[in-house]
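ok so i was messing around last nite and threw this chain in just to see what happens. nothing serious, just curious
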Amino acid sequence: MRWLNRTTWITIAKVGLVFVLVYVLYRQLWGGAHWETFLGFWTKERWQENRFYLILAFLLMPVNWSLETAKWWVLLRPIYPSPYRKAFIAVLNGISLSLFTPHRIGEYGGRILNYPAVAHAKVIMASLVANFGQLLCLITVGFIGIICWGRSFFQTFGIVYDVGLYLGGPILVLLWWGFFSIRRILPWIQGVPWPTWLRWLPKTLEHAEQFNKTLLVQSAAMAAIRFLTYSIQFVCLLVFFGLDIPWHILLNGVFVIYLLQSGLPLPPALGLLTRGELGVLIWQNYELNPLAILAASIALFIINLAIPALLGLMVIVKTNVTKSLQYEERAD
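result:
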């Protein structure tokens, strides 16, 4: 049937994406007792007393995603010049597609929608390196957070704590060396006999040869600032919902939560309960309502993911996906 052409299929895919994303948001926010828990902590008194913290969390949302854009845009520019505004829109697209995929794999597919086919490998390469730098920042700060927490908190896991403490430092140094020495590592990676389905990888990695140390330092610095930004957002929301714990204890606990969550293969939309349970474990020595942590996690999900995802969805619906997916230009 002629009406089932490429444009029609892409339109169907867009409609399906809208329904899937709305369903994911509905299940996450209105499914079970999540929404009731969230509304239960939303009182007039709390708004009057702590509204500064909620407003600050909202104001930091564009800062968070601007830094996310900048950390990979600085790596993308030397291999495929692109306006910052276009890169920011691509990030919003990525948020929409990553919301229901494990380890945010859909982020890469969302970002390439705004670029021609000739740039797809370069966009993915810049994103991979930038995200690796972000992960290293998270692990490093989280590792420091665990050290600050002390062995007394992890006495149940004494051996695990000792092994992690003595091995974690050297491993982190090695990983950071690999991040800043990507040019030295490339020849070794490209010399590996990759299986057929990964033959595209060495060619894609060639673009990383243009990532000098200055660019990598800039990207890592923005990744570190971004990590601090969304950590402060979480702390602000925890204070807003009534956790009466010193700021430095809250921030250190948030660092540990993010570190522990980084090893869980869950999509962002399924991580709220896990984050709440980790919060209860970490701050168990303080008087707190576990539901307050869940309420703060839901609020952070709405601010940092749900709202940007809806904005990104609006962009995807208007994007000429056919033009992006057509390989009209030859790859470099």
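not much to say yet. Residues 42 and 130 are 37 Å apart (CA to CA).
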